[in-house]
Amino acid sequence: MENIFQHHNNSLKKEVSAVSFPRFELPRMVEVRQKIHAPRLEDFIGEIRKELNRVNLSEKIKPGDEIAITAGSRGIAHYREILSTVIGEVKKAGGKPFLVPAMGSHGGATPEGQLAVLRELEITSETMGVPIRATMEVDEIGRLENGVPVYVDRNALKADGIIVVNRVKPHTDFKGEIESGLMKMLVIGLGKQKGAEMIHSYRSEGYHKLLPEAARLMLKKLPIIVGLAIVENAFHEIAIVKAIEPENIEEEEKKLLKKAKSLIARIPFKDIDVLIIDEIGKNISGTGMDTNVVGRFWLPGEYEPSAPKIKRIVVLDLTEETQGNAIGIGLADITTKRLVDKIDYQATFVNALTAGHVEGSKTPVFLPNDREAITIALRTCGPIDPREAKVVRIRNTLNLERMWISEGLLKTLESDPELKEKIEVLGEPREMQFDILGNLAR
């Protein structure tokens, strides 16, 4: 199988034949800064302690109780400090805490791989001062109405109590009252590979129906003491922490998801002809580019009303950190040969197949350089005057405070009092700057 991927890599790295296009005037662009509402907790450690005290954590733990604390694979802000604080409060109550990797099939679906994922987040038994019990073995704790089994990590199941820690945020695959948070951590995180495969295999039904049903079953049957929910602002800083008792997790998570959605940074224009994204990568989003920002999803029928309508998406490059994993490139319409040459097809295809979204690894039309990629994107938008085209350029979907917009959108901005209130124009419109190879100056 590796030889097949290597052959594909090599064949695509051959020179693309020179393509000649008629002269096409590109719109002038101006840099702007978006004012983003971003509340932040200055003393999040103190707030975590206060929250755990509010739900009487110490009264829920008997001396000597073994308490499993979930540790996921996502880069939550200050993750080490959050887990250390929870560990400290459990020890203070007389419990014996240990960490359980709760990340579904991440890390190659092996205990060693999942420990390696945590190590990259600087979460080890040495840094945390507690054991990390990693296994892919699960036990079935019951079945849903349709007969689907629900699985739980064996080490967590043996514990006297479980504390679920996770970030609540909009999911990149589906939209609902429950998306990514404590309930997903239970079903997919503690469900390990079997739990993750069960949800993913049912696609839309799995996310919308089976995930909450399975979480409710787990909340009834498992010795869950408390859930600790984290909400981040648009700058990846901690905005909210909330300790939730098991019987209130579903209701409170719905409320927190609404708050999390209100804190997402978005592109502030409703209609865009061409969105230029300088880079995508796994360090930006699990889907390479955040689907909540660009408004494109793998699953039919999924929709984000706050996202803009975009005719063409152009992606210019991969981040260095993604190490060739180009998952999400299938959301783009046009890309560059530079990006395609960097793709590690094995990593990309394995990611796409594991997630069950093969569309995510499809390679779009790719052009020799940035100028030609942007030109073709504009030419395929329909009969528009390029000088009036609505174009936005962003670094990536995580960095939306500063961006470049075309003169066409500048006119929209100047005629809209609400937009003028939240967007500051930083200069004068100017021609797009390309280097000798036809790539955008950065």
Spatially, the strands of the biggest sheet line up as 12-11-10-9-13-14-1-15
**What is the structural class?**
alpha/beta
Note the overall shape: elongated
Average pLDDT number? 89
The amount of helix comes to 25-40%
User: Please, how many helices?
Assistant: 17
Q: What is the CA-CA span between the terminal residues? A: 38 Å
Strand content: 15-25%
Spatial extent as radius of gyration: 23 Å
**Number of E-type strands:** 15
Mind describing the biggest β-sheet?
A: 8 strands, mixed
Q: Which residue ranges are poorly predicted, with pLDDT under 50 across at least 5 consecutive positions? A: 12-18
Please give a handful of descriptors for the protein shown.
5-stranded mixed sheet; 442 residues; 8-stranded mixed sheet; alpha/beta; single chain; 17 helices; elongated
Account of the 3D structure:
- By secondary structure, the chain is an alpha/beta fold.
- The chain is 35% helix and 19% strand.
- It has 17 helices and 15 strands.
- The strands form three sheets. It has an eight-stranded mixed sheet with strand order 12-11-10-9-13-14-1-15. A five-stranded mixed sheet has the order 3-2-6-7-8, sandwiched between helices. The chain has a two-stranded antiparallel ribbon with strand order 4-5.
- A hairpin with a 5-residue loop joins strand 7 and strand 8.
- The chain is elongated.
- The two termini are 38 Å apart.
- Residues 12-18 have low confidence and may be disordered.
